[in-house]
Write a structure and sequence with these properties.
The chain is mainly alpha-helical. The chain folds into 3 domains: 176 residues, no CATH class; 74 residues, no CATH class; 123 residues, no CATH class. Strands 1-2 form a two-stranded parallel ribbon. 20% of the residues are buried. The C terminus is likely disordered.
């Protein structure tokens, strides 16, 4: 396959239109015209990421020209994973022809190829698809140097698909909702990490907290964006709770960072840049620990939301109880001495109702297994029967209503509780009256 390819060919590079005074996409002619035996050496870190700015910049430029070349990276495939492996092998070969780079960097190189390939497709879509209202206009205005018309028709069909349009719109919204932005420009995190390592007297790599501070602070002065500044303040507050000696420990800073920010995206380690996996950084045991800690953070957030939701539901229950009382039959219960004059039995039922609900909602979080949760639920039921002896059946129904409360939608629950109380519980309490 590679024998028939011309890397510098403008017809294959997809360079597209260029207007007077406008700089086109680089063709990396300085690299193309290098003597055959000359190669640029690329220094990399322990993760296989290029960490010297000059060689890294040249390599990224070369990767960009390959990603735009349809003979190496055809644009007709829906995503990078769908591109057949022989194409990727040819990409790696043409990179190795110009650069001295270890095979450990292959994951990083393919990650960058994927990124630049998607960027190129995005540029093509903006230039030749979005501008026009019909496919006929899109065909007419396509630069013949970009790709053959039959390949363009494949892309048009893909972009015209309603499902793909929805995904595209959602991706645009997600991009707009991104509130934190790094300020590193074209300089990679790996280059910045190496620079910070060399700045340290002990030559230790920076913590993720230190990396966040450096990469989100404008290099020419100025302030972080509001969301980054807020996050940095949270990190400093969390770190200040540690002893002065521990605050200087990179491991402690990483622990604070991990506990403060949201979990990493799948296969991605925040503050390390592309091509680095959680398994590489944390190892198997470290990765398990990290996932446990992230799970704890998620559970705390979920518990906080659940407690807030329970409080809102309790307010609604109190409101419904007041409405029922206004209807008259709750007052009749008090007159028949089924409830004490101060409403203590009613208070007990509400207490057990909420306690049982708490067990059913948060049981999976606080109990190690279902048996423990069921045992606690039965303890609550038994205690309720002991306290409310002659209302045992009523208490049983109320307790199971707590279960219904968690299985049924909230709106449904509050829609039917007045009718449930009046039609079922009232006859039981009054013996059919």
């Amino acid at each position: 396959m590679s024998d028939t390819k011309e890397h510098g060919s403008s017809s294959a590079s997809g360079s597209g239109k260029r207007y007077r005074g406008q700089r086109g996409k680089t063709k990396a002619l300085d690299i193309v015209n290098m003597p055959n035996k000359d190669r640029i050496e690329v220094e990399v870190n322990e993760w296989g990421q290029p960490n010297k700015k000059k060689s890294a910049s040249k390599l990224v430029t070369w990767i960009g020209t390959i990603a735009r070349n349809r003979l190496y990276c055809p644009q007709t495939y829906p995503n990078w994973k769908k591109i057949p492996q022989p194409y990727k092998d040819d990409c790696w070969k043409v990179i190795k022809d110009k650069f001295i780079i270890h095979d450990d960097s292959k994951n990083w190189v393919f990650d960058r190829l994927n990124h630049r390939w998607r960027e190129h497709k995005c540029d093509l879509k903006a230039e030749y698809y979005t501008k026009y209202d019909s496919d006929s206009d899109r065909r007419m205005n396509l630069d013949p140097h970009v790709m053959p018309i039959e390949d363009w028709d494949v892309l048009l069909k893909y972009w015209d698909d309603e499902k793909n349009k929805e995904i595209s719109e959602q991706n645009k919204k997600n991009k707009k909702n991104q509130k934190m932005h790094h300020r590193t420009g074209s300089t990679s995190f790996a280059v910045i990490r190496e620079k910070m390592r060399n700045e340290n007297l002990d030559k230790k790599p920076p913590s993720r907290m230190e990396m966040f501070d450096r990469t989100h602070t404008p290099s020419k002065g100025g302030e972080m964006d509001p969301e980054s500044a807020k996050t940095m303040d949270q990190l400093r507050v969390a770190l200040s709770k540690e002893s002065e000696e521990r605050q200087k420990d990179s491991a402690v800073q990483d622990e604070v960072f991990r506990g403060t920010l949201k979990r990493n995206s799948h296969g991605w380690v925040r503050m390390y840049g592309p091509g680095v996996t959680p398994k590489q950084v944390f190892g198997i045991e470290g990765l398990r620990t990290q996932r446990r800690e992230e799970r704890i953070v998620d559970l705390r957030a979920e518990n906080s939301q659940l407690k807030e939701k329970i409080a809102q539901q309790d307010d609604k229950i109190a409101e419904q109880s007041d409405k029922i009382a206004q209807q008259g039959w709750l007052g009749n219960l008090e007159k028949k001495d089924l409830w004490s004059t101060n409403g203590s039995h009613f208070g007990e039922i509400v207490k057990y109702l909420n306690l049982a609900s708490f067990v059913m909602i948060l049981g999976p979080t606080y109990f190690e297994n279902t048996a423990d949760m069921k045992m606690r639920y039965n303890q609550i039921h038994a205690s309720m029967l002991m306290k409310l002896g002659r209302l045992s059946l009523l208490s049983f129904l109320m307790l199971n209503l707590a279960l219904l409360r968690n299985l049924a939608p909230v709106n449904c629950y509050f829609q039917y509780i007045p009718g449930f109380l009046s039609q079922v519980l009232k006859p039981i309490a009054f013996g059919g009256t």
